[in-house]
Amino acid sequence: MKMTPPILPRAVLLALCLTLPLSLGVNPAPADSAPNDPNQETAELTEPEADANGANGDNENQAGNPVDYETAKAKADLDRIKEDIARLTAEKDKIEAERALATARRQQEQAEMLEQMERQKQEIEALKAEIELAETRERAGIKDELTALTIEGQMAVARANVAKAEAEQAASELRLIESAYRNQIAELTLAVELQQKESEAREFAQTGPVYLEDPVVDGRLVISDRRIALNGSINSRTADHVAERINYFNNRDRELPIFLVIDDSPGGSVMAGYKILKAMEGSQAPVYVVVKSFAASMAACITTLAERSFAYPNAILLHHQIAGGLFGNLTMQQERVEELQEWWRRLAGPVADKMGVTQEEFIKMMYENASTGDWQEFADRAVELKWVDEIIDEIEETSLLEHPDRQQRQQARSSTGITIAEEGAVYAHDEPVMKVDEKGQPYVLLPRINPLDVYWIYNPDGYYRAR
């Protein structure tokens, strides 16, 4: 940035011009002398000439006249100061001219701005006037519109009140109709519920079970609901089912008899059958066995060894030897034979004792009556052999208080297709599912039993197969 030398005031410069010659011993020129005096011009030396003269006679002046030397030097300095003053004065005039020009321009711009502001002010005033006029007109229009809207609103309110009144009247009529329908529905619902209750009531017997300490009345066996079904092959689940119910009925009453009812059982596991026998022996309430159709092997053993047993005349009982597979080396097979003989002694021994024969005689009688050793007899003949105690022509099941098809009907009404069992209903066990082998022969796989256990089951056609 270019620095402008300071400008000394004119009065200061003039004072310097007057005082400097006096201090140097030089008389200033008279005030009235003309600046262009020829004598003065000849007396004054230009700066180069003074420098030359000073250079030529410096030694001379210094040696001859020291005052003249100082006067010449002061004069030269004064000339330089005058030149500086003139230069500064010119620069000052230039700056003042530029300032005046800038001031003039600024004043012109301000004038133009004032003029523009005045025009804008006039435009704003005109716009305000237009806006006020438009607002006045709009207010007038809005007032008219509000008046119209007020009238329309009042009419709408009136129409709404009319519609509301009509709707309330229609709602009252609908409520009356709905009330009438509800009354009809309530009557129909009550009729349906009454019919359902009557139908459900018909599903149940109106009498209760009959409990007798001696269940035989005039040759008819009366069975209460203290009954346990024993059907299908006997396995550990069957034994648990029977033993649990014997214990339960004992806890209910220790005097009334418990009935173990066999419809059809080919026998089964000797361990499971033995568990049932021990549960019967340990029961304080008497456990009576009832055979309706068929009891073979382990089931026949349970019947024969019961405290008291009953059977229809045409029911069939079958006794035979225990049969089991052998595996392993000769020693293992011999041990297995000894195990089977011990089971035979423990189970068939009491049967033979009740018949009044030895075990050997019992086996001999089996093969005398059947080449296969499967000795079967009708119950009326089995009584003579003491396989069963009493023949009954009639059995009264007083425990059947619910229609037998009720559960099937409930299942049919179920959308899921899953059997719905009543709470507390208990089933003895799941009979194995029948399959067909590669030769087209039907069979079922018996549940796996303990390795020391053996099936005592009547199985002439191989229908029951071990795993």
Q: What does this entry show, briefly?
A:
By secondary structure, the protein is α/β, with parallel strands linked by helices. It is 56% helix and 13% strand.
Task: Report how far apart the termini are.
Answer: 116 Å
- The share of residues in extended strands comes to 5-15%
What does the average pLDDT come to? 80
Q: What is the name of the CATH superfamily of the largest domain?
A: 2-enoyl-CoA Hydratase, Chain A, domain 1
Protein described:
The chain has 467 residues and is of the alpha/beta class. The chain folds into two domains: 10-26 and 44-118; 216-465, 2-enoyl-CoA Hydratase, Chain A, domain 1 (Alpha-Beta Complex), CATH 3.90.226.10. Helix content is 56%, strand content 13%. The chain has helices spanning 10-23, 38-43, 47-56, 58-64, 66-202, 236-252, 270-282, 298-305, 330-355, 359-369, 379-382, 406-413, and strands at 216-217, 220-223, 227-229, 258-265, 267-269, 287-296, 308-311, 316-319, 375-378, 390-391, 394-397, 435-436, 442-445, 455-457, 464-465. Strands 3, 4, 6, 7, 8, 9 and 10 form a seven-stranded mixed beta sheet that branches. A three-stranded mixed beta sheet has the order 1-2-11, with no helix packed on it. The protein has a three-stranded mixed beta sheet with strand order 12-13-15, with no helix packed on it. Helix 1 (10-23) runs antiparallel to helix 5, helix 3 (47-56) crosses helix 4 and helix 6 packs parallel to helix 7 (270-282). The longest helix is centred in the N-terminal third of the chain and has 137 residues, at 66-202. The model is unreliable at 1-5, 21-63 and 415-430 (pLDDT under 50).
